[in-house]
């Protein structure tokens, strides 16, 4: 006969022994991140990384092999009013409205720069922990900072990834403030990806029926934050995530990913793999661009699954001023509104939106919904 009271006592004891807050702080205090756990030889992931079963059940649904996000070739954009440009603008419009994600090839960044950027990320994480520790902080206003999970203390669960971030515009850090392991390539890649972002905002402006420079004129490309993610191989990927379901708290994100894969987007209630393409960059619409286009362009849920293979590296370039103090207000673009399409969102500053988004953490209800009228 099973002693149910004894079972309940055991469960209560286990629950009492697991103080999540204390374990989070102990982990954070190591300043070694997930990479430090892997280096220590863990074969079972700490409980702080376990995700709720409802999140993990979704992981068992394989990406739909019949669907893939659009891949747009930017070759032929030199002539402003060419038929080729019109075709590209139309593809950008369709992808931004219906998918919220697309990949671009022939974007102008040399493949050697892309490869060196990925190598630079690996060099940063694979150097001595003591060297990395000098950048470890939870102060997002620092020009350069490294930690594990920006929402470590507010998120539902901890994700199996480490990140270092650099605010490259509008106020770039001094070169000597950047990690020597990737200093030169960070500056070069940031310069190149800024050109790509400005071009994409031109194309999106045209796709919306606005003048080509509209989105750039309202400073959508004013800010650039480069997030360098490192997802170590995980001994128990069935228990955790690389990144919880979320949207991005910016205007636009341009992602460089390696060939391991793991990024998925939610499209028509199915999780779709964003398969790595040689030399391609992944582009996705952020929350603030959805807000100012009054839901015309779509900021879509996406996630990264954990993997036994690794490390996976990715570089996400966020076009957003983030925590930069500003009084500039953003609301639905008046030229896109009408009697039948009234504004759906209240105005906000980028900084206020980002602070609200970050306070919620990943995996919770949409931050964008909180700005609806």
Description of the molecule:
With 373 residues, this protein is an alpha+beta fold. It has a single domain, classed as Sandwich (Jelly Rolls), CATH 2.60.120. Helix content is 32%, strand content 18%. An 8-stranded mixed sheet has the order 1-2-10-7-12-5-4-3. A 4-stranded antiparallel sheet has the order 6-11-8-9, covered by helices on one side. The chain is globular, with a radius of gyration of 21 Å. The chain starts with a helix and ends in a 13-residue tail after the last helix. About 3% of the residues have low confidence. Keywords: Iron, Metal-binding, Oxidoreductase. InterPro entries: DIOX_N, IPNS-like_FE2OG_OXY, IPNS-like_sf, Oxoglu/Fe-dep_dioxygenase_dom. Pfam families: 2OG-FeII_Oxy (PF03171), DIOX_N (PF14226). This is Fe2OG dioxygenase domain-containing protein. Its cofactor is Fe cation.
